[in-house]
Amino acid sequence: xxxxxxxxxxxxxxxxxxxxxxxxxxxxxxxxxxxxxxxxxxxxxxxxxxxxxxxxxxxxxxxxxxxxxxxxxxxxxxxxxxxxxxxxxxxxxxxxxxxxxxxxxxxxxxxxxxxxxxxxxxxxxxxxxxxxxxxxxxxxxxxxxxxxxxxxxxxxxxxxxxxxxxxxxxxxxxxxxxxxxxxxxxxxxxxxxxxxxxxxxxxxxxxxxxxxxxxxxxxxxxxxxxxxxxxxxxxxxxxxxxxxxxxxxxxxxxxxxxxxxxxxxxxxxxxxxxxxxxxxxxxxxxxxxxxxxxxxxxxxxxxxxxxxxxxxxxxxxxx
Length: 319
Fold this sequence. Notes:
Elements: E1 5-9, H1 14-25, E2 29-34, E3 46-49, H2 55-61, E4 67-70, H3 80-98, E5 101-106, E6 118-119, H4 130-148, E7 152-157, E8 160-162, H5 170-175, E9 185-187, E10 195-199, H6 200-211, E11 219-223, E12 227-229, H7 233-243, E13 250-252, H8 255-261, H9 266-273, E14 283-284, H10 287-293, H11 301-311
Parallel strand pairs: 1-2, 1-4, 2-3, 4-5, 5-7, 6-14, 7-11, 8-10, 9-13
Antiparallel strand pairs: 10-12
Helix pairs in contact: 1-6, 2-3, 3-4, 7-11
């Protein structure tokens, strides 16, 4: 088997790390670009010093790579206007030089209410938020690059991430509090409103399986179904089962308090901007994905939730 090389931007994040480990397990040579490289983080990767904001760093790290996993995001949802587009431009330039494929974890931010409730890959991207419009432009640049050069692009879009790897996500920032056994479970959405979740190991497995295919179009997009919670209770019930605490209360997320604190806490301001995705059913249509792969990797919800809570330090019994 010919050994293939992948460059990971964002290898210390949740989805970037999961994809990197999946590729390494399948025999890929994995390079991880980081401003402070430390091989002790994961000895299966070749850690390379550099910054995703520096075009020459990305180009050097991507030399001879067949795949560039663009899983890097500004920390804490901040500075998207300054960082997101320059970073994708650097990945595109590097991919053009090598004829590489860029693998991008997609977001729901691209879509507005005109695309709801069931979203296919060709749905219009009329983003109602600043971050969403930046993501729309990011994907537009990827699409253009596949028509004007040798780069290829693969976008895999899923619901809200949860899983045993660290990273910014609603599960560990809004539903439960890491590091302690939950005394209350928060519900960001309205009662009865469906919501879509995606278990990180399943997303990573899907991405790796697609990335290894040679029969995809130059600009390929796929949506995952993940775990659909039809009324908002399926996830909270799974958390209760994992805790073996059926009586732990479920209470609404205090959006009003987040709004009051948002001027002093930028993260809360950014989370508030995404509230519209919790106020109505929003579901991705995975029929194209199933047609290509035959099925979608799918860990049972109880197994996935328990692994996530254990990694967050939420399963310890009270002293």
